Amino acid sequence: MKAWIVLTVLNLMAGAATAAPQIDMDYVHAEKSGGETTVFFKGQSIWAFRNPAANLSEEEIARHLTGDALFERNFSDDPNRFEYGLGPVHNNTSCNACHAKDGRGALPVVPFNKEWVPLRQNEAVFLRISIEDGVKKPKTKENKFGAPVPVPGFSDQLFHLGSLGVREDLPGTGQAQVWMKYEKSQFTYPDGDVVELRKPVFKVTGAYDEYFDSVSGEMKSRLYEKDVRMGARIGTPMIGLGLLEAIKESDILALAQRDLSAEGVSGKANWVFDIEKSMAGDPYPVSLGRFGLKNNTPSVLHQSLGALRGDIGVTNYAFPDESIAGTPLYEAYRSGREPHAGVEATDQVANDIVFYSQTLAVPARRGATEAEVIRGAGIFHQVSCTTCHQPSFTTGDHPIKAFANQKIYPYTDLLLHDMGEGLADGRQDFDADGREWKTRPLWGMGHTQTINPRAGFLHDGRARTLEEAILWHGGEAEYSKNKFARLPKADRSALIQFIKSL
């Protein structure tokens, strides 16, 4: 790196108002974001997230490609078809539908002449649901080790689609209909620039247990009760999951021990139910959460096979029961039909999907030697983005040897942080409260809207640009957001240019 560029970065660091944690500044010019697993492209590419890790063996690449076909498979609710398994309620028909080209999903388009639009087929967003009493309880087998409490008669996820015969009154609908609109607001910078922000708002109608209460004159459902919490989730990028799985637990927990009180930051681990430990007979199957928007799953297997059963309705060896088993809707649907066929995905299908999800490569950085990008890297540190978006780790052991002992640059601490009321969904998820979210990895960010031009950022896809995403930061991130807002416009642009280089 040229000497004058190094001095520029060091000067920016020295100008920070509060001393940030010590960061390995090699991230400024690092190109191999995924270590030796990294793949390279000339410029931006719609295929940037669709490649096996570069250091896999030929046999592993062949298995990855098998998993790729399964990831794109549209499952069917017709028992006579080989793709059978869909439903009886679901949010989508394939993994790829929520993770377009293995990238981020997009929110529905709201026409100018409509206020609300329904969630239909192939939407990349759905609602998590649970009931809350506000009391923190010890993790026990009875409460599924601290898991969210499902809404009675429903589940912990709201399924807006249904197979033929699930709802005679509303064909094609699952447990209920879900509608979305946007609320808009403005952020004004100290220099007078104004940015419009938007937030998706959801409402639910047509619940399968809905009835008219003649006393109150209202439509009632267990889903409409005041103790029910709902939180939107949108499809996130699939890249680098095996590498995140390979980060040593001790390194993540060490980050949680840092004293970041000067910035109002306190990273926190989420200890969650572990299906692999449970299947192995562990009496206390709890592990460190790494995946999901609130770190609510501990492994790629748990995350992938949970989504296969949950989002699509395809049962598998890890999750063999239907997501709505035991509910009145399910019992009515099964009445008079042939007995349930059992687990719908073979162990081989399930494991190939997991392997594919683990082995998607991270693309290399672009423009890492450009002066403006390097200047933005220094500003990224100056405004304390690196406090939570920890630039680098060195991985430990992993069953897939390609991921072991790799220097990687994911830009996450894999911890929970209070992100403020503006991003809160009010739902507890194991140790995560309603305002806490995982620090999302930033690697590959610059390809996101090349892969899916309508892709949105943050947990519910509300942010159309990286700038909007930054401006939604609150809570523990308020300190950094305010420092960003006070920057000259050219410096804000340089910081975003750096993020787009990742």
From TrEMBL:
Keyword annotations from UniProtKB, A to Z: Heme, Iron, Metal-binding, Signal
Q: For the Cytochrome c domain, which residue ranges apply?
A: 371-502
- Transmembrane regions: none
Q: Which Gene3D superfamilies match?
A: Cytochrome c-like domain
Tell me, what is one Gene Ontology molecular-function annotation carried by this entry?
A: heme binding
Which positions carry the signal peptide feature in this UniProt record? 1-19
Query: Looking at the keywords, is Signal present?
Result: yes
* Protein name, UniProt field: Thiol oxidoreductase
